[in-house]
Amino acid sequence: MITQEFKIKGMICSRCLKVLNNELNATGAKVLDIQLGKVVINYRPEKINRSIIEHIIVGNEFEIITSDNEILGEQTKRWIINYIYNSDLNTKLSSYLNSHINKSYSFISDNFSKIFEYTVERYALTIKIERAKELIEMGELNFTEIAYCLGYQNLSALSRQFKQETGDTMKKYKEKRGVRTPLDKIR
């Protein structure tokens, strides 16, 4: 039996975990640990090999990563998504990342910019806009409540950024149900 760990780019939600877990188990591999960005499996090389495992990972639109900097970049993306979706947004993003990643914000930010060729702040803004689109489509909150939910001091600040990023006003987006980008496709 071989035990192997794979670091994976593009895993951002529980469905990602479920898909990989199911497909890897279907090959006869035993998933020992799976979490966002990582899977550890045990398998018999006479039944399956590394190329089959890699094919399953890549076939599900994930990428295997080996560089420590890329791994840190992917962790940063996941923590930014978590910050926007699951925190009260009262803590500054830089402090939030620093406390969850245990590295200085300048190191995290520099690494992120080198790996993805855009800033942490730019990525966070893009995620916020996608979250705003989702909240608009859900229809449970008015625009002002959405702005406060996303950490804006007022609706006009969100409205300005939303228009700048999407080309539409929030009202127009709501009327026509614009296009959302899956979070794992935001580059």
UniProtKB/TrEMBL annotation:
<keyword id="KW-0804">Transcription</keyword>
<dbReference type="GO" id="GO:0046872">
    <property type="term" value="F:metal ion binding"/>
</dbReference>
<keyword id="KW-0805">Transcription regulation</keyword>
<dbReference type="Pfam" id="PF12833">
    <property type="entry name" value="HTH_18"/>
</dbReference>
<dbReference type="GO" id="GO:0043565">
    <property type="term" value="F:sequence-specific DNA binding"/>
</dbReference>
<dbReference type="InterPro" id="IPR009057">
    <property type="entry name" value="Homeodomain-like_sf"/>
</dbReference>
<protein>
    <submittedName>
        <fullName>Uncharacterized protein</fullName>
    </submittedName>
</protein>
<dbReference type="InterPro" id="IPR018060">
    <property type="entry name" value="HTH_AraC"/>
</dbReference>
<keyword id="KW-0238">DNA-binding</keyword>
<dbReference type="InterPro" id="IPR036163">
    <property type="entry name" value="HMA_dom_sf"/>
</dbReference>
<dbReference type="GO" id="GO:0003700">
    <property type="term" value="F:DNA-binding transcription factor activity"/>
</dbReference>
